[in-house]
Amino acid sequence: MSLELLCMGIIALFVGIAICFGGYRWFVLLLPIFGFVFGFGLGLDTMQSLFGATTFATVTGWVVGFIVGLVFAVLSYLFYFIGVALLGGALGYAIGVGFMGLIGFDPGFLTWIVGMILGIVFAIATIALNLQKWVIVAATAFGGAGIIIGTFLMAFGIVPPTTFGAGAVKAAIADSWFWLLGFLVLAGLGLAAQVYTGRNYQIEPYEDRIDL
Q1: Total-model pTM
Q2: What are the phi and psi torsion angles at 158 (to 5°)?
Q3: Shortest CA distance to 38 belongs to which of 87, 109, 111, 105?
């Protein structure tokens, strides 16, 4: 492993640990980043689901993902509750896509549709039922666990650095119960840690940074 990859892996590992075990406390600062990451992944998944894993879909998906990610990041920075709703949507989308993968469906249009439906349901429920805190805790615990597992997958050569991302990590986890178990254990520990440390802590939502 080169020095650059080693440094990148160490940084990613520390970021993953911080998000997994302390995401709720850092949430306000990380909200625009979450918005961009989710938007980028959603744009890429959408293009590949509609057009297949072709070169056109991949290249176009990167462009669409960057634009959607940028829009989501700006909205998350300007409007707190939009950012929280997007995080809830990201959690629902990940659950939907992950469930379809576990029951044997390959990534595609049907998997994308299920993910989108659950994403919309979770986004609405997060705001309507005042579930912001628990959605933040769950999303950051699972997201941080994914970063940690992804870093180890890259270190062991299972996921190439050039394809390091949610799709590659999901595929590797789905292919091995060992990595799936590690992911679930880390996520569970992150949930427990955040619930314990955040029991007397409440995020103060910032006011809208722009008037519509």
Answers
A1: 0.78
A2: -75, -35
A3: 87
